[in-house]
Design a protein that fits this description.
Layout (H helix, E strand, L loop, with lengths): L1 H16 L1 H4 L5 E6 L4 H19 L4 E6 L2 H9 L6 E3 L3 H9 L13 H4 L2 E3 L1 E6 L19 E4 L5 H18 L2 H13 L1 E5 L2 H9 L6 E5 H11 L3 E4 L3 E3 L1 E2 L2 E3 L1 H7 L2 H10 L3 H9 L3 E2 L2 H7 L7 E3 L1 H5 L2 H9 L4 H5 L4
Parallel strand pairs: 1-2, 1-3, 6-7, 6-8, 10-14
Antiparallel strand pairs: 3-12, 4-11, 4-13, 5-8, 5-9
Length: 334
């Protein structure tokens, strides 16, 4: 009897000490995302909430936060309680591992397509009639062309624009020195570096700055649909794959007991209903049936990858993005 009492006391103490038993699973999560995704996730979140209710019977809520991808990564590292992040660049997610130990080293292997549920590419938004005749990356370095992009120092969107220009030139010339010179001319033509993708769209569309906005194809097509014939989209014949990596922020999810909800949310992004919402917001998706249904809204283009042309994200981080790297060498502050 005495041994049974001791065992019962020990089990009770264990239950009381268990963090999972001390509180109910979280019913809310925070998705920290990049600047121009707010409308997309405003549509996805209610669909996920309905899906979760149908499959588990639980009422939940998904909150969202948006700013430049790199700025968001810094905010999470400084304590923003993100249960999940849906960024627009691998380096911003990897920073959560390298600088904060918030996620495991194998985070890219946890979901399909290297944890990128959808993709896009840098495209051009020009004014009606395309008065500067902008069709390719070569047209962007001509004298007198005013470019608007987000600041590549703070925005993944802007960084993709810079990397796409460099990758185009390197693929064409096979000469790193010529690619660097091309990137310098490209950045010299930028008339304003905004802090994020949406601010850049506002500068181009509402403030009338520049001759061409370079942004994600999804943002360009969505803006053209919203503002009508005063702008038009130019998809260059060559561009760079823009991935949108996602991950549970393990350290936060475990502290808040939100892991099941957070993982369910990210897995939902790969389902046909979520892929359909993404395609309606002009993202290119991996689901074959959804992709085929929305294929007509995209112009054909040859898509280079960071791995093929630039040697992978780790090399990009060292060669281009590190302090004193190629981006610092060619960057012309406005």
């Amino acid at each position: 009897m005495k041994r049974r009492s001791i065992l019962l006391l020990a089990l009770t103490a264990a239950v009381i000490a268990s963090p999972a038993a001390a509180r109910a699973p979280a019913k809310e999560i925070l998705n920290v995302s990049y600047d121009v995704s707010r409308e997309t996730f405003a549509d996805i979140n209610p669909a996920f909430v309905a899906h979760w209710k149908k499959t588990t019977g639980q009422d939940v809520k998904v909150n969202q936060s948006h700013a430049g991808s790199s700025a968001q990564a810094r905010a999470v590292l400084e304590g923003l309680q993100a249960d999940v992040v849906t960024f627009n660049q691998v380096t911003d997610v990897q920073a959560l591992r390298d600088k904060g130990q918030l996620i495991p080293a194998d985070w890219r292997a946890r979901l399909p397509n290297r944890s990128s549920p959808y993709y896009s590419l840098p495209a051009f938004l020009v004014r009606a009639g395309n008065p500067k005749g902008i069709k390719t990356w070569d047209d962007l370095v001509k004298p007198g062309v005013g470019i608007v992009i987000p600041n590549p120092k703070t925005s993944g969107n802007g960084r993709y624009s810079y990397l796409a220009a460099y990758a185009y030139a390197l693929d064409k010339t096979k000469d790193p020195a010529k690619a660097k010179a091309f990137a310098q001319k490209f950045l010299a033509n930028v008339v304003v570096f905004d802090t994020g993708g949406r601010a850049a769209t506002t500068s181009f569309v509402e403030k009338g700055q520049g001759d061409v906005l370079i942004t994600f194809e999804a943002e360009a097509l969505g803006t053209a649909k919203e503002v009508g014939p005063k702008v038009q989209v130019v998809t260059p014949p060559v561009s760079l794959l823009a991935e949108f990596p996602v991950t549970v922020v393990d350290k936060v999810a475990d502290q808040r007991d939100s892991r099941a909800l957070a993982e369910g949310y990210l897995k939902f992004l790969y389902t046909p209903p979520a892929q359909t919402i993404l395609a309606r917001h002009y993202y290119r998706v991996s689901d074959r049936s959804v992709s085929a249904k929305y294929r007509q809204q995209f112009k054909p283009t040859r898509i280079l990858t960071v791995e093929q042309v630039l040697g992978g994200w780790e090399k990009v981080g060292k060669d281009h993005l590190a302090s004193g790297g190629i981006l610092d060498q060619v960057f012309v502050r406005k």
